[in-house]
Amino acid sequence: MKVSMEASRYEKGSMRDYVHDTLKKNIMELKLEPGRFISEKEVVEALQVSRTPVREAFVKLSQEELIETIPQKGSFISLIDMKQVEESRFIREKLEMAIVRQACEILSAEQLLSLQNLVGLQKLCASENNYERLFELDEEFHKLIIIGCGKTRTWTLLQQLNTHYNRIRLLRLAVNYDWANIIVQHEEIIEAIRGNNPDLAEQTMLLHLSQVNFEKEELKEKYPSYFK
């Protein structure tokens, strides 16, 4: 197993967080693919840590539904659950459609410039085929809008709900589905907010967030072993 993350940024006593965050990052980025067997022993050896923080990290990842333990068989990276994907997409869609309407009145010129700068970085990532960084910048784009409208707890809630949804989003980016289209939609959202056009902003956000729904069957056909 090849997993890595800089351990030096974790304070003494937070080894469990280091193990958890490292495994979660690799699960979310599909480097630890859905359905794969994973043992405490191999994580101990890969990360050069003791068994206790690994066991604690496994418990937390199980609570987050990213690891599933089957009696007499062991632990496995959870398969992507399309029911959870759809529920998360539905919740995110409804919340962000409402929030982007507020953004037309609330976001400042400086915040709009920050959004535009994120789009510029997204274009650079697309040109370099860096889908992992593109995903991070996509998250930053939506986070800026949501938190910019004073909805910090809403963003935290979405992060808790989106583990299965985000894995399929990363899978979608990895197989290079319409990167340019995603970026164009971000630009259209910015322009709708800048033009104080809540109806257009809501419509564009709906189209943007519904893309995963259109492509999920193709992804299931291409990677059948990844899905529940």
Can you characterise this structure?
The chain is mainly alpha-helical. It contains 11 helices and 3 strands; from the N terminus they run H-E-H-H-E-E-H-H-H-H-H-H-H-H. The protein has a 3-stranded antiparallel beta sheet with strand order 1-3-2. Strand 2 and strand 3 form a beta hairpin. The chain is elongated.
Rg from alpha-carbon coordinates = 19 Å
Identify low-pLDDT runs.
none
Percent helix? 55-70%
Principal-axes geometry comes out as: elongated
Overall strand count? 3
Specify the structural class.
Answer: mainly alpha
- Written as H for each helix and E for each strand, in order along the chain, the element string is HEHHEEHHHHHHHH
**Straight-line N-to-C gap:** 23 Å
What's a quick, concise take on this entry?
Helices cover 70% and strands 4% of the residues.
Outline the fold blueprint.
Blueprint: H1 15-28, E1 37-38, H2 40-47, H3 51-63, E2 67-70, E3 74-77, H4 82-106, H5 109-127, H6 131-148, H7 152-161, H8 163-174, H9 179-194, H10 198-209, H11 211-222
Antiparallel strand pairs: 1-3, 2-3
Descriptive labels:
228 residues, 3 strands, three-stranded antiparallel sheet, single chain, mainly alpha, elongated
